[in-house]
Amino acid sequence: MTAAARLRFSIVTPSYNQAAFIGRTIDSVLGQTGEFDLDYRVIDGGSSDGTVELLRGYGARIAWLSERDAGQIDAINKGLRATTGDVVGWVNSDDVLLPGALGRVAAAFAAHPEVEWVHGRCRIIDEHDRTMRRWVSAYKHYRCRHHTFANLLTENYISQMTAFWRRGVHDEIGYLDPAFDLAFDYDLFLRLARRGAPVYLDDELACFRMYGESKSGAGFTAQLDQAVAIAARHGRPGAWLRMRTRAKQLAIDNIYRAMRMARAALDRVPRARP
User: 163: closest CA among 1, 12, 55, 22?
Assistant: First the structure.
């Protein structure tokens, strides 16, 4: 890639009282290397847990602000509107990029100049950075490899923290919709998918952190309800689409309910003393 064609990424991290994790997130973004430039912004909602002091410690390496906002969507939209890069995306304050992720994404955009968005494989980790739920990652990988717009209407198999898109599309499709506070990324992906298929990279690009207090971990059922409403918004109205989407979402919901029950049962089993 020549200097004239050097890609510029703008990455946004929304944050609120995430001092326990955000340092790992920031380090994972700043540690990216490759033939690209980086504009990294942390939009904090006025944290009181030491996050601001941590942000100050990075000096000029990141752009950040801390002020009261209307929540995660407001913070992401604020950051996206302020960005200057050719390609944008966001990484939540408890997720991380894997080494080399942005370099692989930059190479994909260079190889496919006609494509508007790129995403890849995701690893699920717990609060201690341990890999978990490998079968979920494998299932999503399978679905991503067989992407069609119709398939995406039945479930959101795209891992948000691995997705990056050309900033210019926001001039035509707008920004994140605050009407969907739990599944707003799905709404965005369907808007992008209507315009064209993404490039899917068969590489792990990022880690999604799942733990008890995480937004998607705690509100999974409500998130699925929103996903059904979003699919109806983007698909043709019809009983078949509604039935197929609802069946898929209910199946996933039941699987996660079973896993939570199994986890709770294991937690009640007395531990043998060493």
Answer: 12
In a domain, 83, yes or no: yes
With tokens 């946004």, the residue in question is 12
CB atoms within 10 A of CB 38: 18
pLDDT digits (tens, 9 = 90+) for 172-210: 999 999 999 989 999 999 999 999 999 999 999 999 999
pTM score, whole prediction = 0.86
88 CB-contact burial (10 Å; exposed 0-12 / middle 13-18 / buried 19+): buried
The pair of three-digit structure tokens given for residue 255, joined into one six-digit string:
């699987």
Q: Residue 273 falls within a domain, yes or no? A: no
End-to-end CA distance of the chain: 57
Strand order across the beta sheet in which 87-90 lies = 63-66, 36-44, 7-15, 87-90, 164-166, 117-125, 199-209, 96-97
What domain range includes position 186? 7-268
Q: Which of 201, 205, 196 is nearest to 148 (CA)?
A: 196
Number of domains in the chain: 1
Strands (E), 23-101: 36-44, 63-66, 87-90, 96-97
Contact (Cβ atoms closer than 8 angstroms) between residue 80 and residue 12 = yes
Q: Could you tell me the CATH number of the domain that includes residue 204?
A: 3.90.550.10
